[in-house]
Amino acid sequence: MKFGIVRFPGSNCDADAYRAVTEGLGETAVYLWHKSRDLESSDVVVLPGGFSYGDYLRGGAIARFSPIMGEVVEFAHNGGLTLGICNGFQILCEAGLLPGALTRNRGLRFRCVPVSLRVERVDTPFTSEYADPDVPAETFSGFHRAPVVQIPIAHGEGQYTADAETLDALESSGRVAFRYVNGAGEATDAANPNGSANNVAGILNEAGNVLGMMPHPERHSIRALGPDDGLPLFRSLVRAVGTS
Amino acid sequence: MNHQPQPRPGDPEISPELVENHGLNEAEYASILAILGREPTYAELGVFSAMWSEHCGYKHSRPLLRNLPTESAAVVQGPGENAGVVSVGGDWCVAFKIESHNHPSAIEPYQGAATGAGGILRDVFTMGARPVALFDSLHFGTLDDPRSRYLFDGVVRGVGDYGNCVGVPTVGGEAIFDAAYEKNPLINVMCVGVLPVSRLIRGEAEGVGNAVMAVGARTGRDGIHGATFASEELDEDATSSRPQVQVGDPFTEKLLLEASLELISRELLVGIQDMGAAGLTSSATEMSSRSGSGIEINVRHLPVREENMTPYEMLLSESQERMLLVAKPGCEEAVQEVLARWDLQAAVIGKVTDDGMFRVREGDALVAEIPVRPLVDECPTYEPEARESDEVEAQRSRLDEIDPEALLEKAGGAARALLSLLDDPTIADKRWISEQYDTTVQTNTLAGPGGDAAVLRLPDRTRGIAISTDGNGRHTYLRPRTGGRAAVAEAARNVACTGARPLAMTNCLNFGSPLRPSVYFQLREAVAGMGEACEALGTPVTGGNVSLYNETGGTPVYPTPVVGMIGVLKDISRRVGSAFTDEGGEIWLAGVTREELGGSAFLAVCTTDDQGNPIVAGEPPEVVLEAAANLVEFLVTGAEAGVFRSAHDCSDGGLAVALAECAIAGGQGFDVFLDRAPGGDSVSGATLWFGETHSRAVVTAVPEDADRVREIGAECGIPIERIGVVGGAVCRIEGGGHVAELDLTRLSERYKSAIPGRMGSEPVGVAR
Amino acid sequence: MTAAAPGVSSGGGSGEPRLPVWAVEVRVTPRQGILDPEGQTIQRALQDLGYAGVESVRAGKLFDLRLQANSAAEAEREAKRMCGELITNPVIEDYTLSVSEPP
Amino acid sequence: MTAAAPGVSSGGGSGEPRLPVWAVEVRVTPRQGILDPEGQTIQRALQDLGYAGVESVRAGKLFDLRLQANSAAEAEREAKRMCGELITNPVIEDYTLSVSEPP
Ligand SMILES: Nc1ncnc2c1ncn2[C@@H]1O[C@H](COP(=O)(O)OP(=O)(O)O)[C@@H](O)[C@H]1O
Ligand SMILES: [Mg+2]
User: How far is B473 from chain C (nearest CA, A)?
Assistant: First the structure.
């Protein structure tokens, strides 16, 4: 099982994703250089956080033109499991693999805080391990969802924005994967750290094989450093690859 | 070809006025004539001016700094390099340094702070270390002042955006708000990096004929004479004479960082240095001075951003994100390849020579030829008159007639005073700042901002380092020697609170004009005090930065030595935090409390004199060096033994504030009785609650460990007493004839809303 | 904030006299000689995308204001004061502005 | 990157024919319906400073390009392609542009 972690010149969570996979999960990871056109037969492709090309214009605006992205787009179109975290989410939107855009945080400030997320779906390749066998899953719009997890955010441009039609489509097809919530699991305005529409923290593409999320599961994937609520996401991917 | 540099067409004539405008006095100019044996060219004058500025030449501080201890078994690289390096065990070393960007930030807070962070990052990665942490020590005017809010807002965004983009977590710092810094804020940034000892590289230019290369951003006209500017006092409205503001480009910095580390690990370089203050001039001459070589460059080969730049401008530009490197013979191409991989360009601009000369050509024309040694190492130094100001002496004795209890009454009683202190932005929660910083990128952060010191995991995954920056301008103002000692002692005990053993330190000396006898006195005394504490605590100084002329309109800032301390944690699983977490845990106070209310936050925040000004008076708490060392030993021993469940030192606001901070951090109330505190029965109530006597800490332990706590105290020579228990939703303090019973939520609310409440919920625009 | 009806202040219900509304466009650019990393990266990216004819890119900011004022001249004066006080940072930025009747 | 002399391509030393250079100003604004927290913040701040007549502020971006092209029309076509491809994100932004001879 091999995770390919794309390195853009300004990626800075690439090493964190690498460690989450190798140290936290005990699986194999390779770095994929942005100028390369080879995914090195990775089972999962991760677009990590950072500032891919400085991102002075817009997060991800330039990254989507890099050579590796051609391969990533094709991989994703062919059903390959693709995870974009933070800047990776921005890139996925810019590249058209996910709908909408990420704009400046409502408060206009960079924010680095742990946030509570509701896992809206536990029947996806990215979230199956969040299903708690002992707790009967609630249902929400017909989809199973899991309780609240703690995962940090660290971004200045994470306000998920899309037109009403797109949002409706995302909601009605259950493609919101994570939502910002308060401790009680409610998606309130106060629990929304950046002003995202519908408290959206992460979304899936139509086929369900591409996930973009602003929070950083890779930062909460190593026991020795504290909470490890991000690890089930990576474990889910291992399971998904193993059973496919 | 000419054998002597000739004036370049268009150069101004060298006149006494021009010399003076370059910040050089007559005697200094005479030395230049003697060194050159002729009149300097305009470019040469610029070079001397920059290298002999206070910032580069340490004119007024070098003689004082000589007395600081700089050696220990752990020190791998002491002062004189881009950054200090210490061994932290195993194969691993830590490179670290602090630097000021005070004047640029006073003009343009966002870019000033951003480029400050950029500069210190380069100092660390040019040692071969990967930067793992930034710290920012900030001093501003009070937040009632709109300009101070604007500066504070801009600086925090600047540090944040830069560090966040480069991917280095900012894990701690300080933020002090005091009218003394209103016109002249202090922005000090510290960077810490980690390297395997085999990667260590220095800023050297060795090997005749080796290529000298300029890498990174192109050179523009920005920051010309920045070093000289940093060595003058801030002029209220001399906008025109200010150097062009430098704009940071963190993306290019990130490329430089990765490329440099790759070049170093592939062993392609002889030496590497940041083009920081005094740009190309200082990097080229310092590198060759360290190696006893010479260096020759041709400015025609320097990549520039603007047209028609003169050699003078190219030599003195402080454009950011540039580095100078010396390649190993035959490695130029490999160097170019690595840089190309990172989309960076490098230009060979010259070569190493062996004649001890800094030689600059523009095409065929020789524009400068200066012997390196005297230029770099023989900057004239001064030890001007030092005399304490009468005003300070008067302030010190002012408290003699005042009864502390009367002051406490005037402050509205103990509970009121405690709430006021928690609401003081200097003491209050700093989350408004630290949440704008990425604190967890690189996944090493075990303890970010909020505790006594930040703790990071080292690559071996068992060891850690703890970092803290500290200083107390108010104490230093009242008694500079004590303030110097205190900065070191406080930083060391903050590090020790986590269980880490303090190892070495860097420092930034932020003072007014040394030409003022009262300021030079402060500088001399503070440095001496720092040195004494370093000796006593076994924490040598591996480098630092001196920022003088921090004054406006003839009023200097408080003398503010800032210490950045590094400690080593043998086993990260034994790390101790400051929060009260265990309900039922017993609270102990370590260290004696003395009647020392002078210079306290209590006086400054809770009391006013007849004119309505905060009282900054009295003798600040003495730093008993033996007690300081013993407390460190106590904290480290208790942590390593796994006995302490929490540890937090007493500093600003004294014991009452320390207790409240532990409670707020842990979400647990407490019940304490202070009269039992060591020395508690012989001090006033006000002092018992709010005095800032050094070498004290609040620790907690489970009741079963009570005997162990006593034993460790006895072993380490630290008087300790059990003063209460953790638990509940109420914070109850009784002692010295006063009682306060406050809801934890109320305390917490005060503490957390102080800064956001003053800053508003939205960014402050560009207001001035 | 809903924009006022073109050319007319939204006023209060209070029957105050309504001032005409002006559209002010403020164009902010980095000062000469000031590094412009955003412009530079865009230029490089455009060249990489094959737009060889791009000689330079400067990145700036744009503000569209709607201002009540008695005259275009007054709107311009006010807007200039706002620029000096808040909207631009004269240490590193230059600006130009133009006043027109709102579309 | 040194800027070309106004109006003339920097060309190569290769004696290629020089194309005229055009100044293109691109004005990018948030699309209707997209939140503009920066504009709102500035508006509130201006009102706090006593500028009561500020009815609305929209914050956008401005890009000044220098483009080599055979004609103004060609420069405009090229610039539009650049905007569509890179400079703007149509999900959240609108733009207008104007071409002129460089000053
Ligand atoms: N400017 C800042 N940036 C980041 N963290 C800060 C800043 N100021 C304070 N902090 C953090 O807040 C906490 C409290 O700071 P301080 O009151 O100076 O602590 P202490 O008195 O123990 O030195 C520390 O963890 C410190 O790192
Ligand atoms: Mg402390």
Answer: 30
ipTM confidence: 0.92
Q: What is the mean pLDDT of each run of 10 residues along chain A (244 residues)?
A: 97 97 96 97 98 94 96 98 98 98 94 95 92 61 71 97 96 96 93 97 98 98 92 96 84
CA B383 vs. chain centroid, Å, equals 24
Copy the structure tokens of residue B746.
Answer: 């109320």
List domains and CATH numbers for chain D: 20-100 (3.30.1280.10)
Tell which atom from ligand 1 comes closest to the C-alpha of B448: 25
Residue A134, exposed/middle/buried by CB under 10 A (0-12, 13-18, 19+)? exposed
Angle between helices B654-666 and B414-422 (to 10 degrees): 60
* Lowest pLDDT segment from A230-244, B179-193, C12-26: C12-26
- A vs C, Cβ pairs < 8 A, gives 19
* A44-47 β-sheet, strand order: A28-33, A2-7, A44-47, A81-85, A210-213, A200-204, A176-181, A111-119, A148-155
Which of B441, B444, B455, B460 is most worth mutating to test chain A (most A CB atoms within 10 A of its CB)? Answer: B441
pTM: 0.94
Mean pLDDT of B189-199: 97
| Higher pLDDT among residues D4 and B730, named by residue | B730
Residue with CA closest to ligand 1 atom 25: B450
Residue B748 dihedral angles phi and psi, to the nearest 5°: -60, -40
Is there a contact between A103 and D33 if contact means CB atoms under 8 Å apart? Answer: no
Q: Among B200-204, B334-338, B425-429, where is mean pLDDT lowest? A: B200-204
Any idea which of B138-142, B294-298, C5-9 has the lowest mean pLDDT? C5-9
| Mean pLDDT of the residues in chain C | 86
The predicted-structure confidence for B355-373, as pLDDT tens digits, reads as follows 999 999 999 999 999 999 9
- Shortest distance, CA C2 to any CA of chain A (angstroms): 19
**Beta strands A111-119 and A148-155, pairing class:** antiparallel
Q: Does domain A2-243 have CATH number 3.40.50.880?
A: yes
pLDDT value of residue D13:
45
Residue B576 CA to residue B496 CA, distance in Å, equals 9
- Secondary structure (H, E, C), chain A: CEEEEEECCCECCHHHHHHHHHHHHCCEEEEEECCCCCCCCCCEEEECCECCCCCCCCCCCCHHHCHHHHHHHHHHHCCCEEEEECHHHHHHHHCCCCCCEEECCCCCCCEEEEEEEEECCCCCCCCHHHCCCCCCCEEECCEEECCEEEEEEEECCCEEECCHHHHHHHHHCCCEEEEEECCCCCCCCCCCCCCCHHHEEEEECCCCCEEEECCCHHHHCCHHHCCCCCHHHHHHHHHHHHHC
Tell me the C-alpha distance between B735 and B593, whole Å.
Answer: 13
For residue range D2-39, list pLDDT tens digits in order.
333 333 444 444 456 689 999 999 999 999 888 899 99
Q: Which ligand is nearest to the CA of B170?
A: 1
Distance CA B512, CA B510 (A): 7
Residues of D in contact with A57 (CB under 8 A): 86-87
Parse chain A into domains and list their residue ranges.
2-243
- Give the C-alpha separation, B360 to B5, whole Å: 9
